[in-house]
Write a structure and sequence with these properties.
Elements lengths: L21 H8 L7 H13 L3 H21 L5 E5 L9 H8 L4 E6 L2 H11 L5 E5 L5 H6 L1 H6 L7 E5 L10 H9 L7 E7 L5 H15 L11 H5 L6 E2 L11 E2 L15 H4 L1 E7 L2
Parallel strand pairs: 1-2, 1-4, 2-3, 4-5
Antiparallel strand pairs: 5-8, 6-8, 7-8
Helix pairs in contact: 1-2, 2-9, 3-4
Bound molecules: S-adenosylmethionine (SAM).
S-adenosylmethionine binds next to α1 and α3.
């Protein structure tokens, strides 16, 4: 099978450039180069429903960077489990965290062959970081993975990241999937979730439904929007960290979670459609 024009220069074994992948569609949304024509077609379909989809992707990614910085800097987290890590970007979890403390341990989990190939290459010389090939919707498998066992100490708090992952899980038992992660975590651990967000405002919900349709009907085949109550079900029994001084513990757009500075422009629709929550296990 020949490679399509503009395909990445080296195609890892096991990659099918005729099928869209979540990781590559997201890479395309961030403006990356590790994607194929089929992935960009999916992105184009989503863009028809939400022209500012790139802002949405960056709102999500920048949230991940800020939350890792917060957990490493302020919350004293020394080990991270980053589920559904995606393709490497300029600021990956281990780079953000290990800039604060080079001994911080990071385990990435993904099952996309391109992600695994890039991840292994990137991490080859970093003894505190690894990437595990496992299904992120099966917490037991993730927790029992050799690499997770070798790198993470379950007697000490863990920073669990499920950033932009659970919306690709279509089952109604999404809360059970997350409970299986949360229950074994030691006290003092943190869980960060970002998710396609339906804020239950009629015009935004209509855009959310249109985006959802475009993703479900595409070769990617997944991407659902959930409400604040549904997203909060993913951090059962945990204390939600307020997203700003004096604010209530609630789900907010990723861009509104402790932003880097004052917001000079209102968020656009796409930015308002990806929400997040960060919570601590008592
Ligand atoms: N967490 C990163 C971020 O927010 O910047 C990347 C998010 S990307 C949208 C979702 C990632 O989850 C992709 O890399 C994809 O390969 C991975 N993923 C999706 N389903 C998965 C599964 N069942 N098991 C492992 N990884 C999965």
């Amino acid at each position: 099978m020949g490679e399509p024009a503009n395909a990445p220069s080296s195609t890892p074994v096991g990659v099918d450039p005729t099928r869209a992948s979540i990781a590559r569609v997201y890479d395309a949304a961030l403006g990356g180069k590790d994607n194929y024509a089929i992935d960009r077609q999916v992105l184009d379909a989503i863009r028809t429903a939400a022209p500012e989809v790139r802002d949405m992707a960056w709102g999500n990614r920048n949230f991940l960077i800020r939350v890792v910085r917060f957990l490493a800097n302020q919350a004293g987290i020394t080990q991270f489990l980053d589920c559904g890590s995606g393709l490497p970007t300029a600021e990956n979890t281990h780079q953000v965290a290990q800039r604060i403390d080079e001994r911080i341990r990071v385990v990435y989990v993904d099952n996309d062959p391109v992600v695994l190939a890039h991840g292994n290459a990137l991490l080859a010389e970093n003894e505190h970081t690894g990437i595990a090939d496992a299904d992120i919707y099966r917490a037991k498998d993730v927790y029992e993975h050799d690499l997770v066992r070798a790198h993470l100490d379950f007697d000490k708090p863990i920073g669990l990241l499920h950033v932009s992952t659970m919306h690709h899980y279509l089952g109604d038992d999404y809360a059970d999937v997350m409970r299986a992660y949360v229950d074994p975590l030691p006290s003092g651990s943190f869980v960060a979730v970002s998710h396609f967000y339906d804020p239950e405002i009629p015009e935004l919900s209509a855009t959310a439904r249109a985006m959802e349709r475009s993703m479900l009907d595409s070769p990617m085949g997944s991407g659902v929007f959930r409400t604040a109550d549904q997203i909060l079900e993913m951090v059962p029994g945990l204390d939600v960290i307020p997203h700003a001084a004096g604010s209530p513990p609630e789900v907010v757009p990723c861009d509104s979670w402790w932003p880097d500075g004052p917001a000079l422009r209102p968020l656009n629709d796409a930015q308002r459609l990806v929400g997040c929550v960060v919570a601590r296990k008592p």
